[in-house]
Amino acid sequence: MKTIENPDLNTLTFASDGTLSSLGEETEYYRSSKYYKVDSVRFVGQRVGFIAGNTYPAFYQGLTLKADSLTLSPCPDHVCDLVFIKGR
Fold this sequence. Notes:
By secondary structure, this protein is mainly β. It has strands at 11-14, 20-23, 35-41, 45-51, 59-66, 69-73, 82-85.
């Protein structure tokens, strides 16, 4: 597991209007996505779809919310999960 030393510089912002923004080297993968949507899938749980634009389909990742933390699971075997702490 890799710990990111300065979490303030690695931020994903999910706005209530469905827009998404990212900041920091560790969130570079999400920069092409401008929008997101959350879906519940039977037997799988919640997942978040990242949307780059009108011409590309959303790419989905597992999503877990627990207290003030958000875990994104881009890999099925959870070896590359990303954990974000809610900023106040």
